Amino acid sequence: MLIQLPLKINLPDTACFETFVAPDASVALTLSRLQSADSAGLNQGVYFYGASAVGKTHLLQAASRAVSLRGGRSVYFPLKDKNLPLIPDVLKGLEVMDLICLDDVDHVIHQPAWQIALQDLQAKSSALGHPLLLSGRMPMSLWPTSVPELRDAMFTLLPVELNPLTEIDDLILALQRHAMIRGFDLPKDVAKFIIKRFSTSLEELLAVLQMLEQATLAEQRRLTLPFAKLVLAR
User: Fold this and answer.
1) What pLDDT does residue 38 have?
2) Which one of 17, 50, 51, 234 is least enclosed by Cβ atoms within 10 Å?
3) Torsion angle of C-alpha atoms 38, 39, 42, 48, degrees rounded to 10
């Protein structure tokens, strides 16, 4: 099932909090607030920042999808997607949404017109009690802003840094959660094997997991270590 949102952006079923592993206590607390039962999940906006492939997009999509599934109105907008209308006016009117998720903000934040549009959106959405979730690579303190009002507006957001998973047990847990959402079991010995053989990058490991899932479906076999070795040796 796909959730159809404004701007014609579809969010997949795998965009959910259940598959995200947060070993850091501050990140875990923020996720708990995002999953709370009220319409938007939190009273304060959040800015997730960190390197590529640490889960920023995952969390914004999960939050947007969760609000939609609860009957609320949410929007997810990837600001580096060149297939979408990348003009500041696209932010106009979004303040009426229960939750506004803007991914890769630092892709446009160097442009004064976007700074003004973002400051205006933050002011209006805050007045309505509708949180803003943003993501980017750099801390807000490093944004090349020329609009003083934007810096003041962004002080209301909670900055949360995301880091790559480095512990093997955390990677195994993340892979097992993704497998569960996809509808199959990932034995721990198989997870250890693919981590040792391929990578500690979760993004790369998920690509391997998808390959194994397709093989189990095609051959109607349960995922075991011998079968995984056979598939990945091809």
Assistant:
1) 52
2) 234
3) 140
DSSP summary character for residue 181: H
CATH tag for 168-232 (out of 3.50.50.60, 3.30.365.10, 1.10.8.60, 1.10.10.410): 1.10.8.60
Q: Where in the chain is the domain with CATH 1.10.8.60?
A: 168-232
- The residue whose two tokens read 């053989």 is 197
**Band (131; pLDDT cuts 50, 70, 90):** very high
Strand partners for 78: 103
State the CATH class of domain 25-161: alpha beta
The bridge status of strand 99-103 relative to strand 132-136 is parallel
Residues 179-192: what's their mean pLDDT? 95
* Beta bridge partners of residue 99, listed in sequence order: 74
Structure tokens of 123? Answer: 């002011």
- What is the per-residue pLDDT for 107? 92
Residue 232 falls in which region: left (phi positive, over 0), alpha (psi -120 to 50) or beta: alpha
Q: What is the pLDDT of residues 10-61, one digit of tens each?
A: 677 778 899 999 999 889 988 888 887 554 456 679 999 999 989 999 999 9
| pLDDT computed for residue 40 by the predictor | 46
**Cα dihedral 204→210→212→218 (10° resolution):** -160
Element (H, E) at 227: helix 225-232
Q: DSSP character for 104?
A: -
